[in-house]
Amino acid sequence: MQITNDPITGLTAQELVDRFGSLGMTLRLARKLQSSALRHGAWPEDDSTISQRWLAEIRRHLCIPRLTLVDRRVSAGDGFCKYLFAADDGARFEAVLIPLAHRPGAAKAVVCVSSQAGCAMGCAFCATGRLGCARNLEPWEIVAQVAQIRRDTSLPVRGVVFMGMGEPLLNIDAVLQAARIFSEPSGLAIAAKAITLSTVGIVPGIRRLAREPHAFKLVVSLTSADAAKRCSLMPVEAVHSSGDLRAALAEYHAATGRRVTLAWILISGFNTAADDARALADWVGDLPAQIDLIDVNDDTGAFRPPDDVERNAFRDALRLHLAAPVIRRYSGGKDIHAACGMLAAQAP
User: Fold this and answer.
1) Rounded to an integer, what distance in angstroms lies between the CA atom of residue 6 and that of residue 178?
2) What's the CA gap between 181 and 317, in Å, rounded?
């Protein structure tokens, strides 16, 4: 067998068996190796049930790579923690630990991960979109963000959201591979339904998600149901129109039976009028959907979030015209540039 030195953290347990079965890799052994590599960042060298000679042979073919931690900052306001990682080739990307404490004594965390170094989507209100895209991340680089953060925090990590740097559906093979590894019992044991894939509306990727068996959630950043307005801030509209997007989401719902979540970035004076609410209701139609309202975060000052009066008026208009749940989402870590739309892979 050719020596490849592949990252074990980028392979599922079954893939380990498929590749190294000729060396005696069984599913039980694969799960032990995977669990040790992901949860401890090391080989199970103190396990008396594993032959050390066999393990030495396996280590000739597999490695446990690590990302370099460049910077780590914790928000003084809400405890969000931002990690700036670097790969061996110098590519930089960020991930955010999001603490959740809905009930006393039941604190947990979700990790927001990056799927690309930078982003090519060019959304005008997003700092990452202004960077351009350096490259896609490999599956192990996505997995390592969560694995290394998991070992750094005392909070149990119970969810992953692909809402960091990059457009996940433009790196869909690596994203789905990482999501599978996250959800494996011997991986990081994160429930598939607690893993969320976010997109600005890459129609071919949505249609692929409709075809493949999985239980991951889907969030689509819509922000305006008026094609011209949307295109003025989100260039993806010129490639994958909101009409095509609506058709793809109908196919997705028909295939999966799942409600689609639409993220609406609230921008004062742009998409918060009653006409915007009516346009969204017309666009949604009979599609089972949920609307997540998220205040824009923009250091340039070009875009401002609405005040309470403007926000509440828009929310009331949505409830009047749209028969769908409307939820306001908290975007934390603003003081450390960890909030939605603020990731730019910059050290202080």
Assistant:
1) 15
2) 42
CATH classification code of 68-336 = 3.20.20.70
Q: Cα–Cα distance between 309 and 315 in angstroms, integer?
A: 10
CA torsion sign, 337 to 119 to 267 to 301? positive
pLDDT band at 345 (very low <50, low <70, confident <90, very high): confident
Pair of tokens at residue 106: 């039941």
Assess whether pLDDT exceeds 70 at residue 3: no
pTM (2 decimals)?
0.95
> What whole-number distance in Å separates Cα of residue 195 and Cα of residue 6?
25
Per-residue tokens: 187: 């991986």
Is 94 noted as a catalytic residue in this protein?
yes
Q: Which two tokens stand for residue 74?
A: 């914790």
Residue from 81, 112, 123, 340 carrying the catalytic annotation: 340
Distance CA 143, CA 305 (A): 33
Q: Residue 135 pairs with which residues in a beta bridge?
A: 117
- Cα dist from 228 to 225, 237, 241, whole Å: 9, 8, 10
Residue type, 227: A
What's the pLDDT tens digit per position in 138-154?
A: 999 999 999 999 999 99
Tokens of 19: 């590749």
CA distances from 36 to 43, 46, 69 (A): 6, 11, 21
Is 340 one of the catalytic residues?
Answer: yes
pLDDT of residue 29 exceeding 50: yes
Tell me which DSSP letter residue 194 carries. G
Please measure the distance between the N-terminal and C-terminal CA atoms of the chain and give it in whole angstroms: 46
pLDDT at 43: 96
Is residue 115 within 8 A of residue 90, CB to CB? The reply is no
Which listed residue (81, 94, 126, 237) is catalytic? 94
C-alpha 86/C-alpha 90 separation (Å) is: 6
